[in-house]
């Protein structure tokens, strides 16, 4: 039985998938407001629940010279503006235990980056805020091992947890999605999110920056929805080729509505006719 995660009046874990979307990093307040407003309008029209996502600090960029974002203080102020002006919940990453409490004062969902999903102190600090958590499965971690990540936050008193699939390392500078991970992680009793844009990332593929191939976002998203997911994560930008982070794997804001319409039709069909592809909770022998 999957336990719903409640983000305000949004229930993740029942009915149609929830969209989590926004630019990879907070580049400016006007851009964040533009993206949040446009995506909310699209979601309202399509009957989709929406959470805005963007990072105040990209602390794991390939190069020390890469743009990281406005930082904690300014970034939280911008996220608060998006939340109050557009009227949507917000999700953002934390990278250090000390960030958990101040970020929880603004953000509705705290996200644990994939590289940090086994950092016990970070997980416990995030869990103790009482806020819902989105924990990304690391590129090097088996979906079965996310059970132990989940146990860490539950031991800290928080069962409002989403687990997120975002691809697995496949040789150098490539990721591949093992779709078995979706029912495996969902069998642990929590909703599962699919990150359709980071799954097409090519880590370090541009030398001092990550590359990606956005043409695969749509087919991977359709595959995940056909299995049955509770939330869909996609990074969007008005002009991805000019984005300051993850541009190659982000999708253009102008392409979002058409793709979401396809995914909603598939999601409704799957859940009304077939249901989730669930498995019994099991650990490998």
UniProtKB/TrEMBL annotation:
Q: Which GO terms label this protein's molecular function in UniProt?
A: 3-deoxy-8-phosphooctulonate synthase activity
Which keywords are on file for this protein? Cytoplasm, Lipopolysaccharide biosynthesis, Transferase
Q: Which residues form the DAHP synthetase I/KDSA domain?
A: 9-270
Q: Which InterPro entries match?
A: Aldolase_TIM, DAHP1/KDSA, KDO8P_synthase
Alphabetical GO CC annotations of the entry are:
cytoplasm
Q: Which reaction equations make up its catalytic activity?
A: D-arabinose 5-phosphate + phosphoenolpyruvate + H2O = 3-deoxy-alpha-D-manno-2-octulosonate-8-phosphate + phosphate
Write out the pathway annotation from the protein's UniProt entry: Bacterial outer membrane biogenesis; lipopolysaccharide biosynthesis; Carbohydrate biosynthesis; 3-deoxy-D-manno-octulosonate biosynthesis; 3-deoxy-D-manno-octulosonate from D-ribulose 5-phosphate: step 2/3
Q: Which Pfam families match?
A: DAHP_synth_1 (PF00793)
Where it sits in the cell: the answer is: Cytoplasm
* One example of a Gene Ontology biological process annotation: keto-3-deoxy-D-manno-octulosonic acid biosynthetic process
Q: What is its main location?
A: cytoplasm
Look up the domain of life of the source.
Bacteria
Q: Name the EC number(s).
A: 2.5.1.55
> What family is it from?
Belongs to the KdsA family.
UniProt-recorded name of the protein: 2-dehydro-3-deoxyphosphooctonate aldolase
Source species: Acetomicrobium mobile (strain ATCC BAA-54 / DSM 13181 / JCM 12221 / NGA) (Anaerobaculum mobile)
């Amino acid at each position: 039985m999957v336990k719903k995660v409640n983000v305000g009046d949004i229930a993740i874990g029942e009915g149609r998938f929830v969209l989590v979307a926004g630019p990879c990093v907070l580049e400016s307040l006007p851009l964040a407001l533009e993206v949040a407003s446009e995506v909310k309008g699209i979601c309202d029209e399509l009957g989709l629940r929406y959470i805005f996502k963007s990072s105040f600090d990209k602390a794991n960029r390939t190069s020390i010279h890469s743009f990281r974002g406005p930082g904690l203080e300014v970034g939280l102020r911008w996220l608060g503006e998006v939340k109050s002006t557009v009227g949507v919940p917000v999700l953002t990453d934390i990278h250090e235990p000390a960030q958990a409490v101040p970020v929880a004062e603004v953000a509705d969902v705290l996200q644990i980056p994939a590289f940090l999903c086994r950092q016990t102190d970070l997980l416990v600090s995030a869990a103790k805020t009482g806020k819902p958590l989105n924990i990304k499965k690391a590129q090097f971690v088996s979906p079965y091992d996310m059970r132990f990540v989940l146990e860490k936050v539950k031991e800290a008193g928080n069962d409002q947890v989403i687990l997120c699939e975002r691809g697995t390392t496949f040789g150098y500078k490539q990721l591949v999605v093992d779709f078995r991970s979706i029912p495996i992680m969902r069998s642990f009793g929590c909703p599962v999110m699919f990150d359709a844009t980071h799954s097409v990332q090519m880590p370090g593929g541009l030398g001092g920056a990550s590359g990606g191939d956005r043409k695969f976002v749509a087919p991977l998203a359709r595959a995940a929805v056909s299995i049955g997911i509770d939330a869909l994560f996609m990074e969007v930008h008005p002009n991805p080729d000019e984005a300051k982070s993850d541009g190659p794997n982000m999708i253009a804001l102008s392409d979002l509505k058409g793709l979401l319409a396809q995914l909603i039709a598939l999601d409704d069909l799957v859940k009304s006719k077939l249901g989730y592809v669930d498995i019994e909770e099991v650990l490998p022998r």
